[in-house]
What we know:
Strand content: 5-15%
Mean pLDDT: 85
Strand order of the largest sheet: 6-9-10-11-8-7
Helix content: 25-40%
Number of strands: 11
Distance between the termini: 165 Å
Number of helices: 13
Low-confidence stretches: none
Amino acid sequence: MSTRELRRAEVLARVKSETLRLVDAAKMLELSYRQTKRLWKRYRGEGAKGLQHRSAGRGSNRAKPEKFRRKVLQLIREKYSGTEQERFGPTLAAEHLADEDGLEVGEETLRRWMLAEGLWSRMRRRKAHRKRRERRQHFGDLVQLDGSFHAWFEERGARGCLMNMVDDATGTTCCRLGEQETIWAAVGVLRSWIEKYGVPRALYTDWKNVYKREPTEKERLRGKAPTTQFGRMCERLGIRIIAASSPQAKGRVERNNGVHQDRLVKKLRRQGIARYEAANEYMEGEYLAEHNRRFAREAARAENYHVRAPSAAKLREVFRLETERWISNDWVVQYRGHFLQLKPQNKRYGPTQAKALVYEGEDGAVEVHYRGERMDYEDLVARPQAVQVAPRDPSREPAKHVGSKPAPGHPWRQGYEQRMKLRRLNRSQQSALVGVSASATP
């Protein structure tokens, strides 16, 4: 009996025990009163078995004849069976039975027959189940970012990388086409998104060194979180980067890439575009607006989670590379093979064991900041060579004064005690001579 039939039997048993009225039983079973009376009559006459469907245990009126079933299974054993690598699956076997043997049978019916006879087994190992993640409810709460390498210009140009951003809540997309998936390519599409919609709360990216990286041994010991240049830029804007562990985790942008690989390629072909700059102009002018109008949807909640876009000057300060460099004692900073001679305004403090921050923009402009202040500098290109001193000529050097060497008994060669002993001896001899001279005087 089915679950529904068992439930009906339980409710009607309460009616039989007079603890429940038939009217209330109809409401509990969600049936009409007339239908409940029919079931009650059947229950009183046959018991719980009378509530079972009359067709239970009987063959289907549309079932294939047993003779046809045996013929099909015999053909499968003779022609389409074998080892796991040789045997035909139900779908393929049904196709060949129809084409070669003229026997029409549904693939699901044939699957049941083959399973019952041991001619087929479910050998396919399915991947681990992944729970579907629901969309975010607010526009700007999470934006997925990915780079898609493809022959966007077909044979008209080289392969390129489409930097694609897709909002998780609405499916709104923003793209830029370039040569590689670099920091500046990611910055370009993020800047374009910010100028259009504002600053999103979080980015969903790959585990790539552009976005996220593993900590070094020194960072592990210090407990410092690793940060990339793009990650530092996002931190200054208040954007959190979430790294996906699999392509399926950010399936929305992956599927969106497939749509672009079909539609954008054909539209670029019709426009005759074969350069990155022209492709970006076309996408900004026509393609993205049409794409979002066709495929984007309304967010579940009306609140927009984007933060107001900063000024252009602020964005220029954010979107630049930042590197620490030591300052030498002569106020020189080495950066990318160049020697930057700083010109400090404050001479009171020297740069002993100090570091400067070197900023480089996308256009290659370099700024040096020391103690929070921007420093003027001169690019020396190469370190000045040391002045070569000519070797000494002994003939032109003045003659050195050569003095006589002290005698072996010279005081310089004697120790302190010996000198004091000699001094006392000299004094006693002088006293004796004075006494002798005084006694010899008349």
